[in-house]
Every structure is written in structure tokens, then in C-alpha cells.
Amino acid sequence: MEPNNELENESNYTASNYRTPDGAPSDIVIFTITSEEKAPGKKTMPARELQLLLIRRKRWPFEGQWALPGGFCDEDESVYDCAKRELLEETGVADVHLEYFNVYSKPKRDPRGWIISHAFLALVNERYLAGRRAQDDAADVRLFPVSEALAMDLAFDHGDIVRDALEKVRVKMLTTTIAKQFLPAEFTIGELYQVIRTVVPDFEEPNFIRKMTSTQSREGILEPARDENGALKRSNRYSQRAAQLYRFTGCEPKLSIYG
Amino acid sequence: MEPNNELENESNYTASNYRTPDGAPSDIVIFTITSEEKAPGKKTMPARELQLLLIRRKRWPFEGQWALPGGFCDEDESVYDCAKRELLEETGVADVHLEYFNVYSKPKRDPRGWIISHAFLALVNERYLAGRRAQDDAADVRLFPVSEALAMDLAFDHGDIVRDALEKVRVKMLTTTIAKQFLPAEFTIGELYQVIRTVVPDFEEPNFIRKMTSTQSREGILEPARDENGALKRSNRYSQRAAQLYRFTGCEPKLSIYG
DNA sequence: CGAATAGTGTCTGTGAGACAGTATTTA
DNA sequence: TAAATACTGTCTCACAGACACTATTCG
Predict the structure, then answer these.
(1) How far does the CA of A206 sit from the C1' of D18, in Å?
(2) Which tens digit of pLDDT belongs to each residue from B94-117?
(3) Looking at the partner chain, which of B78, B102, B255 has a beta carbon nearest the beta carbon of A255?
(4) Does domain A25-175 have CATH number 3.90.79.10?
(5) Do residue B19 and residue A75 have CB atoms under 8 angstroms apart?
(6) Mind listing the pLDDT tens digit for each residue in A40-56?
(7) How far is CA A70 from CA A1, A76, B180, in A?
(8) Strand D: which nucleotides have any atom within 7 A of a protein Cβ?
(9) Where are the residues of the annotated region Disordered (chains A, B) (predicted)?
């Protein structure tokens, strides 16, 4: 358990003679779903796309290459707090879904030395990134469609991190209610379906409405939205015929392969 | 992204003036299921219990207290390789299920300094720990029932780590086929049920046999064991009436809350 | 009217769940 | 023969899946 015998007791604990890490950054894969009106002015469902935020490095190593936002951890903060701080600094947003998912510690992964990186994924509703988008292509901070990001040659092992993050968010999209991160508090079944499909293109459920609305089959994940008088709330922001609005109930189902 | 401006380019990269971590250990929560014959000589199902392995610390800090096995990572290995190495050193076993699950980085969690710990969980079949058990209570390495371990005052934040690991292994027990780590290659439905219940006491399925054997309902997670001639294999090691043996097929089901 | 989205009617099959009953071997 | 484990028969109900059909509003 001990790195050396110098650490045998408190009195002779000075500094380790052993090699210690040169840094422990938190890196963040920030996902968002952009939506764009296909036919402006017409009531039609928007085109949605899963995007992630990258920054262009200003310094050695990998100067000029795109990388994940992130930064080094301080002694007086946890890696989670570090990620939260960096997220605020990079994107100006707080109070978004932020979740640790893996550590990257392969030797020589960083030419600056022995650096162990902690990877987080953040799910940010596009409305929080509104200001950011204006800068667009010219800037050193920019959103990329995931398909595009996967094909890029990113700094460090950030390509691996992005792939792992994508895999993770796809699994969680189907097994938890994180879809809510990309939706308003009240939404239609059609919107929910579109969001799921944006993240997990393989997810195909004809009759999705039927399944989500049939009695207690979905174990009460969703509930119809109602106004103060208890009347059902409907919306026609994306459709001709008004659609029932739903909200997540807050209960997370427990999944099992055995029953 | 940079900790300081000293790192601006390769030529003037020497050593950081900034504080860097004092160590990055891997700690391992080693679970096993012990089984003990209730009535020796009688053909009856054994009593099973979920246990985990702890070591008693020989040095400051937390001298004399029980802690998770683990050790400091070297620069030329990943945290996973470090965990694997420590697992071999502590228990003498290799080729067991070993899985990273979380990082612990709360400031001041370790009185020796700024130490970020990477926690793994290992699932070890009790037959691999056979030698270890002989030493038993007197030794500095010993198995504890999880209920007992949870009530102990462990070194560092290892109590938190154990709780998180238990939560994790319970979820995975129901959503993946890791039950196979605690079972022989061929087993009866009764054994499988017992193993699941040992890890997740809340799991109650009267009619478990029915569910697991009814047509393709379990999507082919299990298949009946057959000998060279294709005849079904049965066992009566734990029962009077011989029971059908099964094996995991290797296919992991994909779960979804949406359909 | 046609396009676009939202839903419903209806049928078929199959699994979940309950629970009592039967089967096989051992002490 | 009683105990212990391993199944099986049978019934009911609900949902999954398919797919065509209706509903509502916009341009």
C-alpha cells in the first residue's frame, strides 16, 4: 500500500522520493442537441443533431489541434468540482447534467509527463449555449456534429474519450431518463422520440406513442401535463394537430435481465 | 487547460511549479461468495454469503485499521494494470473479473497528502481464494461478510468506496451476466437464483425457473448444457431430483426503459 | 385539397403471474 | 414415508407488434 518506507509514520513523513503524477486534469465531453427549423415559419418538427464542444489548443502540445475542454485539478477541489469549474469557465453554464465516466491513465498519453485524466460528460440544453453559437466557425471554441468529431484527429487520446462518452450516453439515453436534459419540462411524445433517435439512431419503435401511453406499461415514467385546473395541456408548437404534453415523473425504473 | 505558463512549449518545459498530486493508488473491492454446507453429507443447497476482502494496515496512517487492498500506481502502468498487479500480489489470483468503477478525490481524504484513488471491483470465485481462507481470523488479510464490513470503521474513505461498490455490483448483477463470475460454467437454475439473491436480497421471483425456461423470453441468455452426444446434462449435486444444467450463452441483452 | 403530425381500433400472439399439482431421490 | 429440490399444467390478464384507419390544423 505504501509507495516507500519514508511514509512509515507521521513524524518522518516529508516528501516522497518516489515519482508522483505531474497532474490530474478533468476533461469534459459536452454534448448538446441543436435544433434547426427546416421550413422557417411552418409548423414542422425541427432537424436535430447531436453535437459536442471542442476547443482549439493554443499551446504545445498539440498546438492548433482540437481537444476537449478541461483543465488541471487543484489540491483543494475534487475532480468533480474541477470539472464543474472548467465547465463554467469554458461555456458559462452551471447546473447542467455533469457526470464522471472514466479515467485515462495509459503511460505516455500526455507528452508533458505523467498525467492522469478524469473524463466527464455534460449534457447541455442548446438554449444554454445560445451565446456561444454566435461566434461559430471562426472561434477557437465550437460545436461539431459527433459524426464529424469522430473523424477528426483530436489532441492526446481525446478521440478515445469521445468514443467512450458517446457509447456511454447512448446506453444511458435508453436506460435512464436523461433525455430530459435535452427537452423542456413539458414535451410531446414526438419530441421525446426525436431526441432519443438523435442520440441513438438505431432506436426504432414504430408505434412509440402507443407504447408510451398504454396504461401502466412504462411504469409511470411519464405523466400527462395538466394546468392548475387539472385540465390536460396540449401544444401545437411543432404540429398542426395539437399534441398532448407530458413530463417525466421523476421515478427511474429499475431494469433487470432476469425478470 | 494549462496549469501554468511554464508549459508553453517543449523547450522550456522543465518541472511544474504548481502543486501536483502526491500519488494515485488503485484500491480494490474484492467480492466473493462463500458457500458452506448446511448439513454436511446431505444433499442440500449450501448457505451462501457475499463477502469482501480487507487488509489490516501495518503503518501510519490508520495503523491497525482495516482497509481495502491496493497500492500506488507507477508511471509506466495504467491504473487498471496497477489494480491487476495489486490484486495478484494481495490474493494471488489473476484472470478474474476486474472493473473500474469510480474515482475518489475529495480534498484531505488521505493525511499523507493529495492522493487521488481509483477504485476497482473484483469478483472472485471462492475456489480461487481457497488457500487464503485457511489463515482466517488471525491473519491481516481476511474476508468479511458485507453486512459486517459496512458497519466497520474503515481507513480513509474506504467505507464510502465499499458502499458504492456494493451498489454497483447489485445493479450489474441484475443488468448483466456477471453472475457467471460466482458460478461454475454449468449450473442449475436454482444455483443461479441463489447467487443473485445472495448479492441482491430484494430480488424475489417466485416462479424463477418458469421465467428462465419459458421459450425465448430471456432472449437466449441461458442455454441448456449438453454432452458430446447432444444429450441434456443434469446434476444432482445439490438436490435429490436431478436438475437440468445451464450455461450462459455469452450474449448480453440490451436493456431499455422505452421498449 | 394535400401535407404534416397526432393519435385510435382491432387483431393476434405471447409472456407474466399465480398457484396447485406432480416428479425424483435421499435420509 | 417425509423432506427437499425440480419442475409442469393451467388459467387469466395485459401488453407487444403490426398496420390501417381517423383526427386536426395549416398553407
Answers:
(1) 9
(2) 899 999 999 999 999 999 999 999
(3) B255
(4) yes
(5) yes
(6) 777 788 999 999 999 99
(7) 30, 17, 39
(8) 3-10, 14-19, 23-27
(9) 1-20
